[in-house]
Amino acid sequence: MTLEGLAGRAYGPAGFAVSAAAVAEFVAATGDDPARWGHHAPPGFAAAVLFTVAPAFLADPEVAPHCRSLLHSEQSFAWGGALPVGEELVVHGAVRRVRARGPLRLVSFEVEASRPSGRWFYGEAGFVLSAEAAAGSTEEEEPPFERRAACDPTLPGRLPASGEVILPLRRSASRADLVRYAAATGDANPIHRDHEAARAAGLPGVVAHGLLLAAWFFQAAARFRPGSDPLQSARVRFRRPLRPAVAAAVTGRVAAEDAAGADLELALHQEGGEAPVATARVRVTP
What we know:
This protein has one domain (about 5-130, about 145-285): Hotdog Thioesterase (Thiol Ester Dehydrase, Chain A, Roll). α1 (about 20-30) packs antiparallel against α4 (about 175-185). It is globular. The longest helix is centred in the last third of the chain and has 13 residues, at about 210-220. Helix content is about 20%, strand content about 35%. The chain has helices at about 20-30, 45-50, 55-60, 175-185, 195-200, 210-220; strands spanning about 10-15, 70-80, 90-100, 105-115, 120-130, 170, 230-240, 250-260, 260-270, 280-285. The chain has a ten-stranded antiparallel sheet with strand order 1-3-4-5-2-7-10-9-8-6. The protein is an alpha+beta fold.
């Protein structure tokens, strides 16, 4: 069977316990506010839930040979309210579609996490797979294990008016942070910790997880809504890799606002870079 024939194949259901320890580990690994997220999971915690079922897809005997190079190209989430610590989730994953582009396979993988009261989130991940080693970029030396640039606290603030810019949020991750994030989410792609694996994927060295960058977008947006249910939906596109220890910042503006919520257009730029590392459109709650 070709990968295109995998459309519709399901993975799961799998159980996921939203424990205090799991939430605290995720909050620490992403640089979020532990005081805010002691009793509920932050929106970005959906990444840990996604990787309850995504590894089963990536380890599928018909898929694994195509994963010599594996990149996360985009991610969308739609949340259904706050997620208290102690909830028990049931997670379902499925291949929605597979498209061929030369030696690459573009896979849309959907996931749904539900609790007794209803769905917590629906998400769709875009993966780019290749059975061939990618063309390499210029190799870079890995930075010291614990080095990172400056990071800002996620302090609450007033949402600017429609059309206005938001206060930037500085972010950076060390190689140690990437190891901690992998442990907190189950995202074990070796390009985030192993130099040779990253080089085989065509990268200059290890790079930050796409969903860690997504968590930074969600933190930047959640500053403007108090409580445990700050976001309705988000779509993130990962445009180029971010190396560990590199200074970066989330910037953006309020694109629109109405009684049902507000849409933020966000971008993550590394220091000195003109093109964004990633972009996002995030809808916050009213």
